[in-house]
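Quiz preparation item.
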């Protein structure tokens, strides 16, 4: 199968306008006849469902949380990017496009990235109109700050609650459509499979998590807005419920997965403090605007941080990357922290952290100004650690955070399965091999509010004459039977080990072999170990209770079963890419000073993978990346 990204013709800055001018439309009378399923109610899902319903389509929305506003977008802290140039510091759509492309190590499509930067201008106006309380200057103008990988201030923020405030805006838009009966919202429902009829996505099978009942839902198109799979590492910044099951089960029905090994390790998280933990806490990247990162110059240092004199501190990011300093991109900052920790310079009880120090910022700006910027983050840090970041440096450490990889989509956000769209973190589209901070909320909103309403209509215009599919179609029964069989398979094992046991084993294996750094030997070992772990899982898993009832252990078991398969594809993808780029750092491919060494001659492509069936090797379909407007260069932040 040859992949067609459907990039519009014309100059880069005109491609999106050209697409919109040429896209087919559905008239208002016909929209009422069409139903769209949207799975997920985070920023991309809520924005998509609200926008599509407002156009007059019938929308059925699903989330596994007890409320749509508890989607994980609520946890994003630091901000959302937009090339408004309010600071008059040289920003522009083109500069944002270049920063994002370079930040992703030149492993994303030019057209997609430019559209993201272009649409960022409208998003801020949209959010303000919804009542999002962005920070403002004294005169009333919206305030901006910097994030990693850029040299301008383009990040709009609402203290450390930007994701929550943006989600509340999208949630209100969604609930307005629910009230108007244009959206049928099903909370506490989890998608377990995709129904494909005549090669097109026509519905889903879901489980009611409150009753255990299996339900069928038909539609003219399906939109997956289910986030990323970073929780595969077990210890991550994501909520316990986050998972990759919806996109993985769509993958097994024919949708290609792209670049699954590009998973981001965030540099600014609280370090692990013991084996009892089930998640790690993210401290916003915005803290790196004013905090300085350092470790002691002496190994195995036992002194308190304030007792270590300035000349005995190694501000290693400022030393290695003077042009960007503490705002170096996430992949580079995380690897630099790991290198210092592994070399014996880590701090904290487990020697697994580095310091994030605000003493200089407090001295120069005053406590009140730092409190105004970061007060809620400092309070959260105090509540979790019982340490005061105003008087002593924070301790931070890298942790799994974001999936740049996801379902392969074309310019229209449609997967290789006609009628199946993926938005937000569920797709791979805009970030390349590394995501710049504050581009996640941007992509989620832009996909849902501004892109999908056009591209979905372009597809649906060709479906008006198609037969309306109902849940009585035999394929719904066949897929439902397969779903029930899988649930029963997990229930009847009755082994001795819990789902969490297997998830922890998987997470440690991946972090060690397919985490911040990878090698051919380690990845080969990981693939062999995954076979052993999978075999043990299906022999010794213990799931209490039954399928036809509330059963949180069964939910987790299904997700971990999928994780075991996703992990194999991650390792295959990492092993096949014999270069270092962005978050994918192969130890065999690095410069003499330890930086990533790309191979544009052989690997300037997006790796899209086809599911071959159980117990068979995945099939690679490379999508070549063509750079017409920017020449890929050495990614230097020095």
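Solution:
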């Amino acid at each position: 199968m040859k992949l067609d990204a459907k990039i519009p013709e014309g100059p880069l800055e005109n491609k999106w306008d050209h697409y919109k001018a040429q896209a087919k439309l559905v008239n208002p009378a016909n929209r009422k006849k069409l139903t769209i399923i949207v799975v997920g109610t985070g920023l991309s899902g809520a924005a998509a469902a609200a926008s599509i319903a407002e156009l007059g389509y019938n929308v059925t929305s699903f989330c596994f949380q007890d409320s749509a506003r508890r989607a994980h977008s609520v946890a994003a802290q630091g901000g959302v990017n937009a090339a408004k140039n309010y600071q008059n510091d040289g920003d522009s759509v083109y500069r944002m496009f270049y920063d994002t492309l370079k930040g992703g190590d030149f492993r994303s499509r030019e057209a997609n990235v430019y559209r993201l930067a272009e649409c960022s201008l409208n998003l801020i106006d949209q959010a303000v109109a919804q009542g999002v309380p962005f920070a403002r200057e004294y005169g009333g103008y919206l305030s901006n700050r910097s994030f990693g990988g850029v040299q301008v201030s383009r990040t709009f923020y609402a203290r450390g609650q930007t994701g929550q405030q943006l989600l509340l805006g999208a949630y209100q838009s969604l609930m307005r459509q629910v009230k108007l009966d244009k959206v049928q919202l099903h909370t506490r429902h989890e998608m377990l499979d995709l129904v494909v009829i005549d090669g097109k996505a026509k519905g889903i099978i879901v489980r009611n998590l409150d009753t255990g009942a299996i339900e069928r839902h038909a539609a003219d198109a399906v939109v997956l807005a289910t986030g990323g799979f970073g929780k595969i590492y077990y210890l991550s910044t994501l909520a316990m419920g986050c998972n990759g099951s919806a996109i993985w089960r769509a993958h097994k029905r024919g949708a290609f997965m792209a670049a699954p090994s590009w998973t981001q390790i965030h540099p600014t998280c609280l370090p692990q403090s013991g084996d009892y933990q089930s998640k790690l806490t993210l401290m916003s990247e915005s803290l790196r605007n004013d905090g300085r990162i350092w470790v002691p110059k002496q190994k195995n240092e036992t002194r308190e941080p304030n007792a270590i004199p300035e000349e005995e501190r190694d501000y290693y990011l400022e030393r290695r990357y003077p042009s960007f300093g503490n705002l170096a991109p996430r992949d580079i900052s995380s690897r630099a922290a790991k290198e210092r920790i592994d070399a014996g310079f880590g701090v904290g009880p487990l020697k697994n952290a580095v310091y994030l120090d605000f003493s200089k910022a407090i001295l120069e700006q005053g406590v009140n100004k730092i409190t105004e910027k970061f007060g809620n983050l400092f309070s959260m840090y105090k509540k979790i650690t019982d340490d005061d970041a105003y008087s002593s440096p924070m301790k931070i450490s890298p942790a799994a955070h974001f999936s740049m990889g996801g379902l392969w989509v074309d310019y229209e956000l449609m997967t290789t399965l006609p009628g199946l769209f993926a938005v937000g973190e569920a797709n791979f589209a805009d970030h390349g091999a590394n995501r710049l901070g504050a581009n996640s909320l941007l992509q989620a909103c832009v996909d849902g509010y501004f892109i999908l309403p056009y591209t979905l209509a372009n597809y649906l215009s060709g479906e008006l004459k198609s037969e309306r599919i109902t849940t009585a179609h035999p394929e719904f029964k066949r897929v439902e039977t397969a779903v029930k069989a899988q649930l029963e398979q997990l229930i009847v094992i009755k082994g001795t080990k819990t789902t969490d046991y297997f998830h922890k084993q998987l997470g440690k294996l991946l972090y060690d072999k397919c985490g911040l750094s990878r090698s051919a030997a380690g990845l080969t070992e990981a693939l062999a170990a995954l076979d052993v772990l999978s075999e043990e899982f299906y022999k010794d898993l213990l799931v209490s209770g039954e399928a036809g009832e509330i059963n949180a252990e069964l939910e987790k078991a299904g997700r971990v079963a999928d994780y075991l398969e996703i992990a194999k594809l991650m390792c295959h993808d990492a092993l096949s890419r014999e270069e270092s780029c962005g978050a994918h750092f192969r130890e065999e491919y690095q410069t003499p000073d330890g930086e990533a060494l790309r191979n544009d001659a052989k690997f300037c492509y997006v790796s899209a993978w086809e599911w071959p069936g159980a117990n068979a090797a995945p099939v690679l379909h490379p999508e070549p990346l063509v750079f017409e407007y920017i020449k890929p260069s050495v990614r230097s932040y020095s």
